[in-house]
Amino acid sequence: MKMIMIVETSYGGIRHWSDADAPALAKHANNRKIWLNLRDGFPHPYTLENARAFLEMVGRQDPKTFFAIATQEEAIGAIGITPNMDVHRLTAEMGYWLAEPFWGKGIMTETVAKFTDFALEHFGLVRIYAEPYAYNAASCRVLEKAGFVLEGRLKNSVIKDGVITDQLLYAKVK
Predict the structure, then answer these.
(1) What is the dihedral of CA 106, 130, 3, 23, to 10 degrees?
(2) Please, what is the angle between helix 107-122 and helix 137-145, to 10°?
(3) DSSP string covering 11-27, please?
(4) 12, 129, 139, 156 from 126: Cα distances, Å
(5) Which domains are assigned to the chain?
(6) What angle do CA 172, 63, 27 make, to 5 degrees?
(7) d(Cα 29, Cα 50) in Å, to the nearest integer?
């Protein structure tokens, strides 16, 4: 089944999730190296049941704000935004991950840049931000290459895998 890409890229694109993505999602998301860079709501180990529960949740989203990063063959990662509310309603936080076999190929930089442009327009936002852990140099490079600006360091703002660490605040403004 050919999936329609919402945003075309050199490797495939960004598209809506499908229930058929569960096996690929479980395969690629079940990676401790990915989990170490995400929030604890992203489980590890990541099972087929976790994938199905995520896809069910995404299926109920209205509007859809979480998307698959995909080749023509399969989903290889995820990207999405969480819109803020009240006085922050024109701002959204962005999160993403990519399957390890695809790291270091420029896929995430292209994805973040194109998705940010799409999200700013499609959701009527003026600002998108991301808060990578300070130790995640690869994600910081992706954001910088995609036009995000480092706005600051959030000291001792999170605990991940039992370690208190800083986050960096990056943003792109329309």
Answers:
(1) 90
(2) 60
(3) S-EEE---GGGHHHHHH
(4) 27, 10, 22, 28
(5) 5-132 (3.40.630.30)
(6) 80
(7) 10
Residue 163, Ramachandran bin (φ over 0: left; ψ between -120 and 50: alpha; else beta)? beta
Residues of the chain with pLDDT under 50: none
152: phi then psi, degrees, rounded to nearest 5 = 170, 175
pTM of the model as a whole: 0.96
How far apart CA 35 and CA 41 sit, in angstroms, is 10
Do 170 and 143 touch, CB atoms closer than 8 A? yes
pLDDT in tens, 120-155: 999 999 999 999 999 999 999 999 999 999 999 999
Tokens of 78: 């995820």
Which of these, 167, 119, 166, lies nearest to 147 by C-alpha position? 119
The token duo for 17 is: 């999730």
Q: Cα–Cα distances in Å, from 17 out to 58, 80, 116, 124, 167?
A: 7, 11, 18, 22, 29
Q: What residue type is assigned to position 170 of the chain?
A: Y
